[in-house]
Structure formats: structure tokens, C-alpha cells
Design a protein that fits this description.
Strand order of the largest sheet: 1-5-4-3-2
Number of helices: 3
Largest sheet: 5 strands, mixed
CATH superfamily: RelE-like
Length: about 90
């Protein structure tokens, strides 16, 4: 079963500032997340009220949550590694 991907406005802004090749890789990874929201290499982040996951795409991180009841993956950040873990 496929999940729907919802890219929040903050992640949409991040995507617009990515280099073209990186943006293409992120798009492919988002397609993969629709099929499997917890791929190999997905890590649960600590210190958030909700369960937040991240997956690596080169030097960038896709930060997202999963709603299994609604079959929804909500992406709220696509950031370079140093910025991905700041709140």
C-alpha cells in the first residue's frame, strides 16, 4: 500500500533552493518513501514531541513524520546535515 506524501511549505522552500541534481535525488527518495516510509537507513530523531524520522540523501536530510492511520508521510524539511538537527 502506498502512502501519500505531503510536502509542507517549509520543505517546499527548501526544495526550491536545492541544486538541480540534489533535487532530483530528493524527488526519487520521496517516491520511495511513498512505497516504504521506513526504508533502510531511516533514523528516529530524539527530542521532538511527535515521532520524527530522517532519511539521508547525500549531504542532505529529509525530515518527516508518518501517520499510519491516514497513510500519510508529512515532509517538513529538506536541509543540509548541519542545519537538519537544529530546532
Amino acid at each position: 500500500m502506498s502512502y501519500r506524501i505531503r510536502v509542507e511549505s517549509s520543505a517546499d522552500r527548501d526544495l526550491k533552493h536545492l541544486p538541480e541534481k540534489v533535487a532530483q535525488r530528493v524527488d526519487r527518495k520521496l517516491d520511495e518513501l511513498a512505497e516504504n516510509p521506513l526504508p533502510r537507513g531511516a533514523i528516529k530523531l530524539k527530542g521532538y514531541a511527535d515521532t520524527v524520522w530522517r532519511v539521508r540523501v547525500g549531504d542532505y536530510r529529509i525530515v518527516y513524520t508518518i501517520n499510519t492511520e491516514e497513510k500519510l508521510v508529512k515532509v517538513f524539511g529538506v536541509l543540509p546535515r548541519p542545519k537538519a538537527y537544529r530546532r
